[in-house]
Each structure stands twice: as structure tokens, then as C-alpha cells.
Amino acid sequence: MKRTWEEINDKIDRGNIVVITAEEMTELSEREGVKEACRQVDVVTTGTFSPMCSSGLLINTGHHAPRINYKRAWLNGVPAYAGIAAVDLYLGATAQRENGGTPSAYGGGHVIEDLVSGRQIQLQAEGHGTDCYPGRSAEGSYTIDDLENAILLNPRNCYQNYNVAVNASSPGTIHTYMGPLLPDMRNAAYSSAGQLSPLLNDPEYRTIGIGSRVFLGGGIGYVTFMGTQHNPDTERTPGGVPNCGAGTLALCGDLRHMSPEYLRGVCIKGYGVSLAVGVGIAIPILDEEMAFYTGVSDADIPAPVIDYSSDYPGMSGDILGRTNYKELRSGEIKVMGKQVRTISLSSYSKARKIAVELKNRIRNGSFRLTVPVAPLME
User: What angle do CA 233, 238, 243 make, to 5 degrees?
Assistant: First the structure.
């Protein structure tokens, strides 16, 4: 059985679309088989919610009197990049508030959360001082409604699979972007929604590509390009699932239409700050192959266990074994003969909520699918 994008969008418009979440698709495929699941279902929705460090906000503050070309700027004390044009700024999610050299628990991700929550932020800026932009300094208070533009612009989101991090060699606790890792492998950290994760439900990027419309931070976003570190040419299982991190997405969307429920500033002790981002992608069931892919289960998704004791994990000799997301979500895995408890940086309950919210939007006709204008495969 085959469907076209046009047929699926027509069913959305007419209100008779059949859409279920990736979690529900896994259950349906296991119960009734892939062929029957394909016959019954038009669209499958996915979701993920976790810290995504390679995220940020592009803003235009509007001009000051006298006009100024920003040389340096701070938003709530967090440095923003000013080397774009006049009053454009890019605020990175992992930028930390400058506080006399002391690591701060507040950063770019928190400023983004403050703005999307409707709270006021403070700007301080220095200017170059030129004939056409004579201003040397500027200050101001802004809510999101005061900004000319506020665009969430994320260079790398939605990693397709990822490491499981342990501390196998260091005698003390080490603090990483995967959270604190206890010595002697007393815990293992992972960060993926597994069977709900977008790119794990379309491992060959057949329907997710440049131009795809997505649920981003509670609003609407788009895939603008392959994300940084995009590496689809990795070893895969017979089912097409990569054995380690592979594809990534560059995403953007209007912050004004997003929600603090799906954009949260976070602080990871000993590492720094970041932004937890909620993303959901709808996958059309064009044929049985897509039904098979979206029926993937946690048990089908392998993940490498990596020793983060070295300063550059993932190099030769650091891979200690492999597990899968069913075992990870059980709360305990076996590594080198040892039972290790697991912790997740990714919220599965929030990923499920995103997939359900996206399902409801498609059902009520407020979210149509877009055909990619170019593929993500290199």
C-alpha cells in the first residue's frame, strides 16, 4: 500500500486523518504486524525533550537614539554575539552570565526561557562609534513583544541516537554534559527518547529533510539544513537504526509562538548551562517501509556505552560495550559484567506529551505536513 503527501494533507484538511504516536505505532505493529499497521495509519508523530546545547536565539532589538552598531552586548548579564549587523544579536544557549570568572548557574538558555515566559530582560551594549552609528553605549529593558525579531535558531538538535556515558577509570566523580558520573561505573547517563525520537523513526531520512515543518518549543519550526556534526554514514542495524550518533537537524522558528513548557533553561552541575528543547516531527506513512521504521521499539535501538573518564570520549578503547533503550529505561544495564543504574537527561514523559500534542494538532487540521525541498543525506 502506498500514499502520497498530497493524499495525506487532503485527509488532514477533510478531518479524517488517522494519526497515532510512535509509541502507539510500535504497539500496533507488534500486535497486528507492519502490513496491517501500514493499512490503518496515515501519520505517526514523534517527540523528544532534552538539553540541546547547540541552540540559540537571534534577535533584533530595534534602533536606539543615537543609533549604535553593537560591538559587545549582554542580555541579563549573559554575553551575546554582536558581530552580525547594527542591532542584531545572537545569544547562545550555553553562554554563561559573566560573574567575575565564577561559573554561573544562569545563562543563555535561561534568558530564552525568560523571554518566552513574558519576563523582562535587560540589555547593556557598547558601540563602535562611527559616523552613521555614533552611539557608544546603550541600555534598555525588553520583553519579547518589544523586540523587532526573536528567532530560535538552533544549529544542532535531535541527535539521531547517542552515547551512554559512564565513568570507568577516574577515581572520583566527573562532571560532564551528560551529568555527574560516579566512579567505578556506579551510574550510566543517556539522553534520548528512544522509540519516540524523531530521527530514529525515519533513520534513512526519507520524509524528514530540509523544509520539513516541525513542532518546535511549543510552536512551529522548520528544518533549515542538516545540523552540525551530521554524520549519516555510520554503521547501522539490519533495521536501519544507527549504532551510535548519526544525523542531526538545524532548526528555526519564531520564539513569539513558543512556550516555556517546551523551552527550559537548565544548569548541569560542573559543566555549565544549556537549553532543554521540545521537538516533535510528524512522519507520513507513505508505504510499508515507513510503517516498519516507525514501528521501531526501544529494544531495537542500540547505544554504545562510552567511558567519559578521558577528556575526549569516544576515541579508540573508550567503547565498553553496547546496550539498548529498553534496558536503559528499565533503570539498570550490565556493563563489563557489572550491573549499573541508569539516569536519563531526556524526559520520556515530556516526549510523549509532545507526540500527543502534535497528533492532536494534525487531527484538528492546524498542522499540515510539508514535503522536504532537499534531502539530509550528503
Answer: 50
Handedness of CA 100, 153, 21, 36 (dihedral sign): negative
Rounded to the nearest 10 degrees, how much is the dihedral formed by the CA atoms of 19, 23, 28, 33? 110
Could you tell me what percentage of the chain is helix, strand and coil, using 3-state DSSP and rounding each to the nearest 5? 20, 35, 45
Length of the chain: 378
Q: Which residues of 216-254 are buried (b: 16+ CB within 10 A; e: fewer)?
A: bbbbbbbbbbbbeebebeeebeeebbbebbbbbbbbbbe
Pick the range with the lowest mean pLDDT from 7-11, 107-111, 283-287, 317-321.
317-321
The string of DSSP letters for 73-108 reads EEETTEEEB--SSTTEEEEETTPBPPSTT---S-BH
Distance CA 200, CA 189 (A): 19
pLDDT of residue 118: 98
Cα-trace Rg, the chain: 22
- Among residues 358, 271, 207, 355, the alpha carbon closest in space to that of 51 is found at 271
Local confidence band at 377 (pLDDT 50, 70, 90 cut-offs): confident
Distance of CA 322 to the CA centre of its chain: 23
Taking a C-beta distance cutoff of 8 angstroms, is the pair 289, 239 a contact? Answer: no
Based on the residue annotation, tell me whether 267 is a catalytic residue of this protein: no
Q: pLDDT tens, 132-191?
A: 999 999 999 999 999 999 999 999 999 999 999 999 999 999 999 999 999 999 999 999
pLDDT, tens digit (0-9, with 9 covering 90-100), for 94-138: 999 987 656 689 999 999 999 999 999 999 999 999 999 999 999
Cell matching residue 290: 515507513
Q: pLDDT at residue 349 above 50?
A: yes
Nearest-10 crossing angle of helices 22-32, 348-363:
90
| Beta carbons of 88 and 62 less than 8 angstroms apart | no
Classify residue 41 as exposed, middle or buried by CB count within 10 Å of its CB (0-12, 13-18, 19+): buried
Distance CA 196, CA 263 (A): 18
Location of C-alpha cell 579508540? 316
Say whether pLDDT at 302 is over 80.
yes
Catalytic residue among 132, 158, 252, 267: 132
* CB neighbours of residue 353 within 10 Å: 17
